[in-house]
């Protein structure tokens, strides 16, 4: 749950409002309806959608989503799962009164555990979630990203914290300006790893 929360917040804070929900949606769909965790994620998904519509000047859609988000977040404590839910509710109320405030002031930054989370702040587990979001959004080969994440997890399990795969997955998530070249490098390392695995398997054929 924590890695999904942080990934979605970092994606939102990067200005990719519409894409933030992709970090939460799979986790949300696995939760029992009406639980506090489900209401939190559902409310955050509606909140980010409201901001997206506000920036698109779809004021009616924005306000409708704000009302939906407020409903899902109602009843949750002001601080839940590291999220300042009270502040999110205050922001929602302000947008409901005047959705154009998003243009005048810009979108609010979301916090987790009291910190404005940026893509570069994500640990590997959260960066892996964000990497998957950006691979899908920007049309990169998702199999390459998934394989890189798998190899990174294997390396971490073996104590190799400085694994190239770990660094490349984190860089892919955090460095949009160089995402293309990072993807190429990751694809090359994935191919090399697969070749080594096949070579080892061939020894026992």
Written account of the structure:
With 205 residues, the chain is mainly α. It has two domains: 119 residues, Orthogonal Bundle (Hyaluronidase domain-like); 64 residues, no CATH class. Helices cover 69% and strands 4% of the residues. The chain is built from ten helices and four strands, in the order H-H-H-H-E-E-H-H-E-E-H-H-H-H. It has a two-stranded antiparallel ribbon with strand order 1-2. A two-stranded antiparallel ribbon has the order 3-4. A hairpin with a 2-residue loop joins strand 3 and strand 4. Helix 1 packs antiparallel against helix 2, helix 2 packs antiparallel against helix 3 and helix 7 packs across helix 9. It starts with a helix and ends with a helix. InterPro entries: DUF309, TTHA0068_sf. It holds the Pfam family DUF309. This is DUF309 domain-containing protein.
Which terms summarize this structure?
4% strand, two-stranded antiparallel ribbon, two-stranded antiparallel sheet, 2 domains, DUF309, Hyaluronidase domain-like
């Amino acid at each position: 749950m924590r890695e999904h929360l942080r990934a979605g917040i970092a994606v939102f804070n990067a200005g990719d409002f519409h894409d933030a929900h992709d970090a939460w949606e799979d986790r949300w769909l696995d939760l029992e309806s009406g639980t506090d965790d489900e209401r939190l994620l559902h409310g955050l998904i509606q909140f980010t959608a409201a901001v997206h519509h506000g920036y698109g000047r779809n004021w009616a859609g924005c306000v409708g989503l704000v009302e939906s988000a407020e409903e899902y977040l109602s009843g949750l404590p002001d601080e839940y799962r590291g999220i300042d839910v009270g502040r999110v509710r205050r922001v929602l109320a302000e947008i409901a009164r005047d959705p154009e405030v998003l243009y005048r002031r810009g979108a609010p930054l979301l916090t987790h555990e009291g910190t404005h989370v940026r893509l570069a702040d994500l640990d590997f587990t959260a960066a892996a979630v964000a990497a998957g979001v950006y691979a899908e959004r920007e049309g990169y080969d998702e199999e390459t990203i998934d394989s890189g994440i798998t190899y990174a997890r294997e390396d971490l399990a073996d104590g190799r914290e400085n694994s190239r795969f770990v660094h490349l997955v984190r860089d892919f998530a955090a460095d949009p300006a160089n995402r293309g070249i990072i993807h190429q490098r990751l694809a090359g390392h994935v191919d090399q790893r697969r070749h080594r695995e096949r070579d080892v398997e061939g020894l026992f054929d």
